Amino acid sequence: MNTLQARNEIIIGAPAGKIWDVITDIHVLHKVNPGVIKASGRMDIPGETRTCEIENNGKKGIMTEKLIELIPGKRTVWTIQSDTLGMARMLSETRFCFNLDKIDENNTRVVNETYYQPANFFVSVMNRLIIRKKITLAQEQILKNIKLLTEK
Prior knowledge:
Blueprint: E1 3-12, H1 16-23, H2 29-32, E2 36-41, E3 49-56, E4 59-71, E5 75-83, H3 87-90, E6 91-104, E7 107-118, H4 121-150
Antiparallel strand pairs: 1-7, 2-3, 3-4, 4-5, 5-6, 6-7
């Protein structure tokens, strides 16, 4: 069973629909996620995949993720299908989630959660020391980027 490893939330002064448009648009993923160089695929249909060229700590690679849950206007959940940097070998049962909660017409709570299980004892130790912190920082930046793209 996967475990919640990182969670961040932010209140964005924008309608939920505008935020939804950003988090489901493959063409702006590189502006949302600082690790993505370029991306292709679909982010708005359950079962579809996206392939991202990524850079992580100076290392470049390719990650393919599958959209396993989509509740239009409210929730997306992605999992890693494959990658060239070894994340899929280190982390099992991955889930990368966005949840949108409409507060009112112009304010939305956006929650970013990451679930996974470390694949072995060594990764479990690394998770406590490094991995979880890096994911938390990445989530914070992603939420700030969404805020910048949608609050205008």
